[in-house]
Amino acid sequence: MRWVLILSRERADLLLRWILVGALTLALSDCSLASSKKKGRLLRYDEVARVWIGISEDELCLLRLSLNPNGKGIGAYSFLDKEQHVFRIPSWTYGAARIHIAVEPTDPDHWRIDPLRGSIMGDAMQLTMSGEGWSRSFTLRREEELLRRWKELKEVMDQIQPRTPP
After folding, report:
1. Cα dist. 51→119, 123, 144, 161 in Å?
2. Closest CA to 130 of 142, 147, 112
3. For residues 153 and 157, what is the distance between their CA atoms, to the nearest angstrom?
4. Beta-bridge partner residues of 73
5. pTM score
6. Predicted confidence (pLDDT) per residue in 64-83, tens digit
7. Where are the alpha helices (DSSP H) in the chain?
8. What span, in angstroms and rounded, lies between the C-alpha atoms of 67 and 89?
9. Are 14 and 76 in contact (CB under 8 A)?
10. Which residues are bridge partners to 129 per DSSP?
11. What is the pLDDT of residues 14-36, one digit of tens each?
12. DSSP three-state, residue 70
């Protein structure tokens, strides 16, 4: 018996993007473990003021942060395949490889999230998200860099074996 899942084109594209982000984050986490003896350089503030994407250590939660140069931003996360939750970032600070991100939920009925805290070394952000009775650790990477690398991988694979349309 064959199972068919029907998704709108928009939802299918979104699902594919999150799957790719998760796979890339895991792959890059493995790469960073292999080179753990080599420490990266500290990023400048303007290099941190970007969009970051990642997955939790337990692979249950996806997180996307858009950090603006003005010290504000917006973020969103989803747990499993449940509803996405968006939050405002009224302020964020970075210095000496440490990052602190204040958060405000956009939905007043949503549970409280503590400020996000973590560190950045090289191109990786290690971040902890927590609230009352729960906590998640994340590894994030800059979205533009992951998408560029992903595109390069797809292109080199297509040179060897071109994709066939579905």
Report:
1. 16, 12, 7, 32
2. 112
3. 6
4. 67, 89
5. 0.72
6. 999 999 999 999 999 887 88
7. 9-34, 45-48, 143-160
8. 8
9. no
10. 136
11. 655 666 666 555 555 555 444 44
12. coil
